[in-house]
Protein 1
Amino acid sequence: MEPLEDLVVDGNAIGGLLIEVFGTEMTTAVGTCGSCGMVAQVAELAVYRPGLGTVVRCRNCGNVLMVFVQARGVTCVDLRGLASLVS
Amino acid sequence: MSPISRGFHRRHQADEPAGRVPPGQYVTKDFPVLSAGPTPHTRLENWTFSIDGGQTAASWTWTEFQALPAEKVTVDIHCVTRWSKLDTAWTGVSLDTLLAAVSYDAPYVLAFCDGGYTTNLPVADLTGGQAWVAYSYDGGPLPAEHGGPARLLVPHLYFWKSAKWVRGLRLRDVDEPGFWEMYGYHMYGDPWREQRYAGD
Amino acid sequence: MAGTAVRGRLTWQTATVSSVADETARVRTITLSVPDWAGHRAGQHLDVRLTADDGYVAERSYSIASAPGEPLAITVERLDDGEVSPYLTEDLRPDDEIEIRGPIGGYFVWDPPGQAPLLLLAGGSGVVPLRAILRHRSRTGSSVPARLLYSARSLGEVIYQAELAQPADGVEVIYTLTREQPPGWSGYARRVDQPMVAEVAWPVARAPVAYACGPTNFVEAVAADLVALGYQPVKVKTERFGATGGG
């Protein structure tokens, strides 16, 4: 079995999803973690895709920054973990 | 109108139910690892399992937990991502044993875990021999990537309710949505009625 | 801002397969014809969507293998337990249609002009966007020095081998074959590690920029090695494919 770390990707992998949600290219958008203040481009955030949804976390503290769930034609978006997201 | 991709089909066709496989599921011999975050690595000397929110509370250290009567169970498990795995073998402490240690009348719990994951369940689905806190899988200690040191095991519901890295239950009067439920997954999650998403 | 002039269509388009070409036993390049294709930047990817006749839909992302201006192409690795990659690498044929969205990505991209020496680090199929970068470098007549460190399990698994055997002026290709080497092989024969990166990397004083692409563990290890050598983190671009190329 693959080491678990290999299952984690980065914001590059959800470029298309982010375009759907935000209407524009977002991998270079700069996010600030609402928990530890770490600043990073979306492309560099840790992205988990367990099949139920997409969970984007701060690489520094692990705080959940964004969650996307797509079901029954609706995309649920939670950005509460971000203090800011600037594109 | 999307063009049909000639000859393309899904990899796993849903298996014939035959009474063991809920609708829309396929049987796998693998045990996929699905994770919404990094694997916690809680040291056993720091691990506790607690139940609070009732009239009394209870808490066990790892040593105390291991001393509780445990059961070996073999169950089928069903993930909302459509895989089912049959005859999985676990050892764990029944929730009947654990809930008997507290005085409560709340009808719901919120299970909480290392890493911050939560999921909600009715107490009635945890008692009567339906649920365990499992610390052994397939004859060995439960691996961290599958939820070790211990996870909730509630096989009659979709497996997202069998919370990995569980650390306790909070008894509640109201059924509050846990992590996935907040984003649209079904509050109850019965695979036999295909309750994947809210409103199903 | 330079490089943002090309805007991809944000909606799905139908692409027709114009040709397919096997690169290795498990890897195939698919060239696509897309009406009104607006172009792309080297390093970007496409989202691909397939619809089965029962309505089942599957989506995956694949890096664009072609340089801007060349016919649009993706390179796909067949994963044994994949759902989409076996279809794309074995069943898809010319004149078939697939849906694509893109190009996508504004971070893992390289555009000339620039003076910064390029360090490209590829783990397996992570070589695909880096090959697009090298082809773009050639087509635009750029003379920035470029080095590609390409980690593959064996020579048989090296993608674009013939092309990489004749690199353009100013480009060096260094392989490390981690599982199996041909007789007489005198190159690297182990997983990429810090001493190897230190030998291959441009000196920090030359203000290089690095692009690392491949499985997550590979990318994180090489990125950490470069930062430990003194590379500024902002000059080390990373694209993690997960355990595999995507399924």
Protein 2
Amino acid sequence: MITLLTLLPFVGGLFVLLVGRNRALARLVAMLFGVGALLITCFFWWGFDPQFPGMQYEVLHPWVPSLGMAYHVGVDGLGILMLALSALVVVISLAASWANENHDRLYFALVLFLECGLFGTFTALNFVHWFIYWELSLIPAFFLVRLWGGPNRARASMLFFLYTMVGSIALLLAFLAIFLATGQFDFVQLAQLGQSGQLTTALAQNLHWSGNPQHLALLVFWGAFLGFAVKTPVVPFHTWLPRTYSEASSETTMLLTGAMSKMGVYGFLRILLPIFPHQMQQEMKPLLWMAVATIVLPAFAAWVQKDLKRTFAYSSINHLGYCVLAVCAVASFTGTTAEAAIEKSAALTGVLLQIFSHGLTAAALFWFIALLERRSGGLRGIDEFGGLRRVMPVFSGLMGIAIFASLGLPGLNGFPGEFLIFKGVFALAPWAASISVLGLLMTAVFLLTVIQKVFSGPVNPRWEAMPDLTTAERWVFLPIIGLMFVIGLYPQLITGMVHVTVAQWAAGVRF
Amino acid sequence: MLAWTIYLSFAGALVARLCPSKALARAVALLTALAGLGISLVTLRRWIPGELVTVANIPWIPQLGLSFHLAADGISLTLLLLTGIAATAGILFSWNIEHRTQEFFAFYLVLIAGVYGVFLSFDLFLLFVFYEIAIIPKYFLIAIWGSVGRGAKNANPGSQREYAAMKLALYSFAGSALVLAGMAATWAASGGHSLSFEFLAQYPFSSHFQFWAFPLVFVGFAVLAGMWPFHTWAPTGHAAAPTAASMLLAGVVMKLGAYGCLRVAMMLFPRGLDPWGFHVLGIGSWRDVFAVLAVIGIVYGATVALVQRDFKFVIGYSSVSHMGFVLLGLMTLTQIGLDGAVLQMFSHGVIAGLLFAVVGRMVYDRTHTRELGELGPLRLAHVIPFAAVTFILAAMASIGLPGFSGFVAEFQVLIGTWHTFPGLILFAGIGILIGIAFTWRALTKAFYVEGPPAEHPHPLPPITIPEKLGSFLLLASTLIVGLYPRILIDLILPALNSPLFDGLRKGAWR
């Protein structure tokens, strides 16, 4: 079943390439496949049993037994949420590309290939099989940036590619050591070994490590960490991101920030937290500091940006920083009391909510920027607009809602996630949470600055004739903004799906 | 039946030479290569894992104990398959050769016959004979049909080709001389009864003899495998050769060297890998020495490829880097590392073939330049998109992205390295990263450069059908092995566990 879902966008991509040079047809076919994938995901969502602990829709076939390779897919609460998010973001991005004349059939095909990589990454439960999708999703992403980006796209795409590859190679080497030690590539099995502490001893034994076995395990942990830290990104491995996000066309950035950056957070939750709990706990100081830096520094950086896209690129780092903070805080706390389990559950539920809501909000925000760029002929400086509220009230109103969602206003989708994260982290790592509040504050400052400079103030005479959202655009934005309110007011929609998974994590991460 | 791969190739060479028309010679060559591939595939279907098929065993010079002994185990069969694929693809990519066509294909098929012979020989002397047979046609293929870069010191194309051809021949012969010396010593040390592998693998050579015979023979073969610092023939030779010959040189001939390292040096003199008992700079055995050289080759080859301006030299140095993984895998002395090394031989053969096909045939034969700086403005991604897409896929395979054969191979070599040389793993990782950088640099510089398109004096001819067929053949091979590596792993692993490798397994094997 899941195989079918993963293959669907791939087939769709090939199909799009086949339909010829007719752009209208290509985008229609791509949209049909995108919506099809979204419908199948909804079907999965509907058939998902939130009370069932463990993987659902599981498929396991041996592949190359001598190398521990198996075709093992399945979803738990995390997986299903990621599937839904990627399917949704792809459809939104395709809708945003609908009117962008530069995006030809190759663009649409690459988007669908990327979707295939995302689905594969979020469902695979065997490292080798997972790594195939992890790496191959990078290729369409590279070409999406390389071929349809801004003037400095060559440099940006290369930076993006190489940076991610550095992380991937480190991750690969770490997992090869793990395989050598345990003969296992299966995430579920490895998690058991990791939590019982056998992984550390096995590593030292099988690699003929003469030094302290803890050190080797830490080395392997940092290797795996690097892979996800680059992808998420975590400060100081984030430098590729602002350049890539701002050079890529906005529709591509929607995919990168909405879905692809979640691959990193997913890795934290699926791999680092279950397999390396002891290592994460040992290294909690640097990890928490990095997480705090990921929250605070980009928030300041976003404040001084002059380019809307760069502002929101930094804001993306900041938002994913909350997720990293929560994961690290959960791993750092050693208590086994019932209260601790509650706080951990809160923090982890917050992470999942934050993943979903950031994906949705960021995709929407970059779409608004895409629309603004198209209307202004490519301009997107913060200071180049002003008073748009009066010129295009609907646009300003809807984008305002999205910005407030990003800011974490109660009632909108950003709030429940951030609230739960802070609730959990305050109990688990109070100092880290206190410093991170600074990031929360700065987020409010720079987002309000954007609103003030772009929407209010005197009307810039150049844009007096700028058209507001068309009727079609209004209808497309309606469900997106609606979903923001739904999640904000009824987060149970998501927490209900994931609470068993989260409870398991919270119980499993004990020391 | 496998012996017919050799006989047919020799016969095909003769017939191709005598063909009255060029078209006929091409057809003969293609049929011969296809027949060889077909024979290997049929054998693969009937293969029982772990078996050693004796194809022929006829006394040759009984007084000296030499016999015409052909046999194949899983490792030989893997490389026979590679030869069949590379040979067929090479002929498809040299469809456009108009200059002395019949002779070209005759030399080409003699080279193929020699390669088949090496992979099938189970007698050291016979292996050596075939090894030498393969050197001669290489010289002529490069000297007569070679291609010429612009960056070379010497402007005279003829002398540039001859320089490369002569360099390659001299390096090959130097390596052969070492092997010959090792062979003579082996013959004397084993009593002069036989040079059959089955006999020699069981013969208890003294540790002292193995201590110096191993490096002698290993280096002799490793020259042809492009081991640093004896690699310099490889980039010049690859770059100067005509496309089909580059494909064969990188794809198959370098494997002759690696195969010799495994089949002769390591299989016959396993004690040569034992620790010396003392350490110099942390190096305590020949195994450490060659592992370090292999890693230097990986990093050095990749670094040099990163700064090349000539497209073909980029690929040439990449071969040095990728062959480093083969040697590293061999030196890990673990089952998984050796398995990875043999798989990497296959994988690199296919991928390097594809890369050279794009650079030499699709790009150079149309644009007549190999300079990256001149190719960019031609906007090749728009003019010949097929070449660009093929190169992207080949580049993905070459940098070891999962799903392609290179991943499964390098991945096993790296596991072996973690096991045996954890200190070298970081350098191997850096080598892979530089590999990614130079491949992606070449890709973007050659195909995706911004700016106004340069006027090309004549419109580029479209991609022909033989080129497409050849590309599909190679891409399919790397993808099939990448997605279902058991096809080859089930051949290689039982062979490594056969009695022939008993001596090796008694060492630090896991």
Protein 3
Amino acid sequence: MTARALVVATALLGGALALPWVLAGTRYESYVQHVVVQMMLMGLYAMAWDFLNGYVGLFSFGHAAFFGTGAYTAAILVARGGLTSAPVVLVAALAAAVVVGLVVGFLASRVGSVAIFLVTFACAEALYLIVLSDPRGVTNGDNGLPGVTPGPLLGLDLGDGRTFYYLALAVVVLSYLVLRRVTLSQFGQVLLGIRENEVRVRFAGYHVEQYKTAAFAVSALFAGLAGALTAFHERIASPESMGWLVSGEAVLFTTLGGTGTLLGPVLGAAIVVAAREVLSDFFRSWLIFVGATYIVLVFFLPSGLYPVIFPAGRASRRP
Amino acid sequence: MTIVVLQVLNGLTIGAIYILLASGLTIVFGLQGIVNIAHGVFYMLGAYLAIGLYPRIGFAATLLVVFLATALLGLALELGGVRPLVRWKRQGMQVLVVTLGVAIIASEVTKLIWGPVPQLSDVPAGLTGVMVLGPVVYPTYWLFVIAFTAVFMGLLALAFYRTTLGILVQSIALNSEISQAMGTNAPRINSLVFALGTGVAGVAGVLAGPILSVYPTMCFDLLIILFVVVILGGLGSLLGIVVSGVLIGLVNAFGVAYLTGTVGNIFAFAVMIGVLVFRPLGLFGRAGILK
């Protein structure tokens, strides 16, 4: 991270910490808090995707599978199972997301780069259809599963808007630090090697498929975390969270923010979530903007906003 | 027994539409290594255009006009959205993201023009009614779709192995650089094949109109099953899409008949995943070779 990025990051973090205090008592308090938490959780989700795309070179179009698995596991345990302990629910949701990540990763690591797109897409869509078909009446079909009230976590009341806000902030910051550490570890260096030249890494004696599968599992863990917290935040797990538009959002946020930066995707998520809040009230066909953004980005800004704001600050360019 | 034969015929009909659509997708992948998410858009456009055109100009003319219109639009997409990125040596994924953007915009614009309510187009006048095949009575039009696809795939195979263009396409798929060094104008052939593929997708839309319903997100819904067909057959394999198109069509038909449509589609995904575990390149896939 460059000095400039460090200053900006500190300022943003300070702003995020101060926001609830600034807004306290005004009528915007709960609305702004709600939207900012959305930004942070979608940012975390996109960060997980960026780990896979920016640091391993794998293009997943099925990340909604991990996000949705986290959301639905949490929802089913709380709303159907009546579990009140938030830590148990979160651990179970993460475990479920990792299992799905391992299965999808196992399949995806065996096929070529474009086929990875198709395989992850197909796996996510299969899960989406399963959720939609409402097996044994567990998932509540296309209405979504409501009633996901979070229980207490380490003595904190997650039902309180401000507490949940700070929890989300802490989770995003910690996840960033963990993912950054992973990319700098030996494991992460092998992943970078796979991105740069898979054949050479294979000849160096590494089992590329296992590394790719493990990378999928790591990414699924954080995407599932974002999904479970989103279910807590919205109090519902909706089938849309498994749909391909959510898979596409990870691509959009990351491409907009900057691939291979981990922080860029959070920036991208913040921009798109804010734009959606403003624009979707005026235009019913708000998705046209999303489609146009995809095209404009690829043609005119393929490496995203992050390198524009912080020149030479790209984490992925580190040796 | 009768019901089984009926379901087999249903499977062949839906499989025929899958095969028509998958042919363009899989050949373009074999040539340029790109996946066109907007492929479904041309199928959707074909279906909507047919609803407006068929009562006015008749079925055969509709097929021709839709083929030309969607082929031209496909050519525009290739020249404007794909070729620059290929020339700049961008990754295949970036082409994919562009076509995704095009597909999202097209789907929304379709919703604005034709409305969100599903429609069904009319069965062509000469092909209404039913045919009696022994114990089975089956709609003539559905049999026509099967026959149309069989003839089309026969002609495609013939063009592929017996014409100069077909041989050149094979050479580009095998090794684009060497083929170009030998004097092949690969970009031009790639554009031509891309446009032909989208034209066939438009024709598939016309054919599917009276069978499947026509609505603004159909370009995505069918695309997903289409991907299953293409991966299962082996990316870039023509024989593969015929086999897997029929297979997935049958899985779909029997799923709809004995369970529900959703469960039928889940089975289709399960078949694909099962095959991929043992054959990562699909049933007939071979790395880098269009076959």
Protein 4
Amino acid sequence: MIEKTVPQTQEMFNNYGHLNGDNDILHYDDAFAQKNGFRGTLGHGLMYTAYVADLAAKKYGRDWHYCGELTVKFVAPVCPGDLLRVTLADNGKAECSSQFGTTLVGSAVLR
Amino acid sequence: MTRPSEVKPREGEQTAALFADWKIGSEFPELTFTITPDIVNEYMSVVNANPENYLVDGRQASPPNVVAVYMMAVMYRKYPPQQGGIMIGNTFSFHHPVWADETTEITGSGRLTDKYEKKGRKYICYTVEFHRTDGVKLTTIQHTSAFPE
């Protein structure tokens, strides 16, 4: 298994949103997010997808670019202050988890 | 260089499409954009990517998922976004590297594949395909999101 841990901050959410143009206030407005039942602002799902993809690129190398298959499902939100652990098992099973539990499940395999 | 923010309709800036507006099978207008080394570098920075993981036969490639920052732009140009959308899941299929040391002209196209309601949430599913403008297929993404209205 390979893994990495990425502490989450609002600045990271802002920087990703600055690049992709995402203006959904769930990512930026803490009061709005809490009013909608979340612990705080939500990180961008595609940012976490990229964390898994980074491990997959490390695992599979060249083949990842030509026949990689990445599936992710977001099962719980990630908020500022979360310590996000990203893992990719030998069989391609992927997971992200924080101190609050599992946030993403999926797989990264070759076709 | 095309920054995603230049081509992605932003939440709250236009009248949003509602669940009733989305039509299964509808095609999204093609979106052509360029990914430059600067965009690749910024993407790698904001997703904590390690460049060493993306060497292909000694050449620096981008994370092939770099096109993800353009995915919603393709759909939102047909159906402007609501506030409060939540991403549910994605499947990426990668077919060819996006090189980090050159400018790549890419066309994104796609269509709405499904929509349904479940436990009070409104779900939409769509597919986006990214090709280089010379025809080389790069990435296909199958996406699901939930929206409040």
